[in-house]
Amino acid sequence: MDLSRKPRLQHLDMLRGLCALGVVISHLRALLVVPYAEAARHGLFDKLLFALGGLGHECVIAFFALSGFLVGGSTLAAMRAGRFSLADYGVARLSRLWTVLVPALALTALWDALGALLGPAGAYQGALAAILESGPTAREPATHSLVTLLGNLLFLQTIETPVFGSNRPLWSLANEAWYYLVFPLLAFTFFHRAPIMRALCAAAGALALALLPGELALLGLPWLAGALAADNPARPSLARALAGALATLAALGVSHMSRTVLGDIALGCAIAFWLRDLAAFPSIGGLYAAAAHGVSEISYTLYAVHFPLLLMLWFWLLAPARSQPGLAVLGQMAILMAVALIYAAAVWFLFERRTDVVRGWLLRRLRAPRGAPVVSRCAGVETNPGDRQSRAERNAAF
C-alpha cells in the first residue's frame, strides 16, 4: 500500500496538535483548579478558563474524525487502486500504536509507583476521588495486574479490562485499534473482487461490531465520517470552510452541554466533513508551519504519556489542595504544561520517531522467505520504496 505520495496536511497537523494540547489543558485544569461551582468568582476570564479546560473529551472525538480522514481515506484510495495489502496495513497500524503504547505502559507503572511512594496514602485506590475529577476512584482504582497490562496491549481496555494504572487517556486507543480492524473488513465488502470474500468480510466486520460495547461501536461513526470525507475531496472554498467551522462550533456546544454519545457523534461528523476544506487550503510558512509540525509530531506521545506524570506530581507536591482561578494557578498550569511537553518530546525522541524503523523491520521479516536471510536497512537496502508512509497518515493514531 503506497501512501508515500500524500503530502503533509499542515492545517490538519495544527488541529491535531491543538487537540492534544486541549486534552492536557483539561487534565491540568481538573488537577489544579477548583470546580466551577466552587469558584469564588465567575468573570469572563474565569468562564473562558473553565470552558477551554473542559474540552478534553471533545478533543478525543476530533482525533477519531482525524484518524478516519487520514487512515480510512488512505485505505479507501488504496483499495480503489487495487494496491491495498491487509498484511502491510496491519503491520503499519500495530507498529504505529505499539511503538508508543509499550513505553507508555512502562512509564505509567514507574510514575504510579513513585506517586504511591511520595503521595498521600491510598491515592491510587481512590482516596482523593471526592476532590479529584480525573484519576483513580474507589470503584475504578489504578490497576497494575498482568491481566490488565496484557489487556491494554491487546486493546481490550474498557472492553474486558480497565485501563492500565492511572493512565485514563488510554481508553481511546481501544476504540482506535478496533476501528482500524473493522473498517477494512467492511470496506472489502464493496472492493474485494471475490464475492465469497466480500461476504466473509462483511460477516466478520458485522460480528466484530456486534461483540464490541455499544458506545465504542457508535463512536466509530465519526471515524467512518472522516474516511468518507477524505474519499470525497473538495476544492478550497472559504464560504464552505466558514460554514463548516460554524457547524463544528454549534456541534461542540451541543456535545459539551449534553455529554451524550449522540452529541459526540454529531460533533465528530461535523468535524469530519470540515476536514475536507482544512485539508484543501494551501499551506502557510513561517512560525505557523513550524508550530503545526512540531506539536503534531509529538501529539500521540503527549496524549499517551502525560497524565501519569502530571498525576504523580500533583499527588506529591500539591494534593489535596486546588486553587481558585487566577494568575497564580495559570502560572502553575504553564509550568506543568512545559514539563509535559519536554517530557513528551523526550519520549517521542526515544520511541515514536522510530516508528518507521520498527515498521520496516516487521515488514522485512513478514516478507522474507522462510529460512532466507533478512537484509538490514543498515546495508542501505529497502524492501520496497512504496512501503514508506506519509507523515500525515503515519501520525494518525487515536
From TrEMBL:
GO aspect biological process, one term: lipopolysaccharide biosynthetic process
Provenance organism: Methylosinus sporium
GO cellular component, one term: membrane
PANTHER family: ACETYLTRANSFERASE (PTHR23028), ACYL_TRANSF_3 DOMAIN-CONTAINING PROTEIN (PTHR23028:SF53)
InterPro entries per record: Acyl_transf_3_dom, Acyltransferase_3
Protein name, as recorded: Acyltransferase
Any GO molecular function: acyltransferase activity, transferring groups other than amino-acyl groups
Keywords: Acyltransferase, Membrane, Transferase, Transmembrane, Transmembrane helix
Bilayer-crossing regions: 15-37, 49-76, 97-118, 177-194, 201-225, 266-288, 300-319, 326-351
Coiled coil: none
Residue span, Acyltransferase domain: 12-343
Organism placement in taxonomy: Bacteria, Pseudomonadati, Pseudomonadota, Alphaproteobacteria, Hyphomicrobiales
